[in-house]
Amino acid sequence: MKGLNLLCCCVASLLLLGTAEEVEDASEPIKRDRSHLENTLKLNEDKPADDVSGVLQRLRKIYHSSIKPLEQSYRYNELRQHEITDGEITSKPMVLFLGPWSVGKSSMINYLLGLDNTPYQLYTGAEPTTSEFTVIMHGPKLKTIEGIVMAADSARSFSPLEKFGQNFLEKLIGIEVPHKLLERVTFVDTPGIIENRKQQERGYPFNDVCQWFIDRADLIFVVFDPTKLDVGLELEMLFRQLKGRESQIRIILNKADSLATQELMRVYGALFWSLAPLINVTEPPRVYVSSFWPHEYHPDTHKDLFLKEEISLLEDLNQVIENRMENKIAFIRQHAIRVRIHALLVDRYLQTYKDKMTFFSDGELVFRDIVEDPDRFFIFKSILAKTNVSKFDLPNREAYKDFFGINPITSFKLLSQQCSYMGGCFLEKIEKAITRELPDLLGSIGLGKKPNVLSCDITGCGETPKNRYKKP
User: Fold this and answer.
1) How many CB atoms lie within 10 A of CB 257?
2) Closest-CA residue to 329 (of 460, 434, 459, 217)
3) R_g of the chain, CA atoms, integer Å
4) Which position has the higher pLDDT, 22 or 426?
5) What's the CA gap between 382 and 375, in Å, rounded?
């Protein structure tokens, strides 16, 4: 009898253990297959990285010899607040994640990098969880870097962030992760937008910091979810800052598998309705609809559609990574064009000031009239007559009131005086960089040629600029 009771107890224990295991297995969500992600982003390929050191060396030399002298002479950084460092020239492509709180920005980064349930994963939750600007970059081992250390390291591209104050640097954090994708790209996770919080409560200029990252991002993911489609003041300001960067914006409707088909159509239309006043472009923005997290799609949803949308977004990301050098050269050339236009405008302001000044004139009053109404003196119209200047590239007239408010016009020299016997003329050097040197460097990448670094070191990347003060 005792043996029978013992046998029954053993059988009961085994049944209970099996039931517990089934419940435990049922409670664990099924993970999604990641093969499409690894194939699209080419994470399984052992292809060696392209050697771009020669191109970067040539690009850095062109910037320092042909662009930066004019940039510093006419204090362009005080107009645009955009100073290019060597770290920025050599940096990897940057992908920026923006959007309301708890829409899945951090979860999307965890999914792309496969960090879920690992020591590396970013903290996520239904409440606002990300209060810092988090830079996820490659490193030999898992390592956390404080913001003050990132800003102090000149080898990184984040040293200009010191200008936003120590309160911001406490909200900046870097995480190094040994991941193959991070060898080719850097991710930046941002605090979620909370419309009922005043910006000054953050303790640092949130919009200015966002603008710094927007100006340097190669791809911008603006993430929404079906429960956060309303547009408030902070989100409206964010889209104003994104103006002119529409080609780099990708709008993502995340958590799409949480809705039935009819509800998803309504949410999709509501998202367009909310964003329509904020994006003033002729073509509607591309909206990717999917669920970016590691768990399997909910049953009875459009799994094939969500998978195709995800692959399309991954292809966009991979294209940005593949075109790294082309985008970098195009960015430096765009910067050079803006510096040239700024120098031409300051030169025109100064020339007009000198022409209007007489022996009995009050210099302050004369220049105030010029700054208040530059059109009366044809300041901007005269610039349009110059080669390679478009009216769409001209800066805001109001910006020069503030610029000359802190930079007296008498502290500048005319462009015709910015020449030296050995160095040549600043204007001719930057024009040559825009029209010849940078396009040639871009063409050498397209043809698979390696730029001749040695000849660049010897000749200064081109012919010697003409010097109007040199005797024939």
Assistant:
1) 21
2) 434
3) 28
4) 426
5) 10
**Cα(261)–Cα(298) distance, rounded to whole angstroms?**
12
Task: Convert the pLDDT of each residue in 47-65 to its tens digit.
Answer: 655 668 889 999 999 999 9
Q: What HEC string does the chain produce?
A: CHHHHHHHHHHHHHHHHHHHHHHHHHHCCCECCCHHHHHHCCCCCCCCCCCCHHHHHHHHHHHHHHHHHHHHHCCCHHHHCCCCCHHHHHCCCEEEEECECCCCHHHHHHHHHCCCCCCCCCCCCCCCCCCCEEEEEECCCCEEEEHHHHHHCCCCCCHHHHHHCHHHHCCEEEEEECCCHHHCCEEEECCCECCCCCHHHHCCCHHHHHHHHHHHCCEEEEEECCCCCCCCHHHHHHHHHCCCCHHHEEEEECCHHHCCHHHHHHHHHHHHHHHCCCCCCCCCCCEEECCCCCECCCCCCCHHHHHHHHHHHHHHHHHHHHCHHHHHHHHHHHHHHHHHHHHHHHHHHHHHHHHHCCCCCCHHHHHHHHHHCHHHHCHHHHHHCCCCCCHHHCCCHHHHHHHHHHCCHHHCCCHHHCEECCCEEHHHHHHHHHHHHHHHHHHHHHCCCCCCHHHHHHHCCCCCCCCCCCCC
Higher pLDDT pick, 127 / 389: 389
Q: Which amino acid is at 444?
A: S
Could you read off the pLDDT of 316-360 as tens digits, one per residue? Answer: 999 999 999 999 999 999 999 999 999 999 999 999 999 988 888
Q: What rounded mean pLDDT belongs to the chain?
A: 82
Give the pLDDT of residue 458.
36
pTM of the predicted model as reported, rounded to 2 decimal places:
0.80
What pLDDT is recorded for position 469?
38
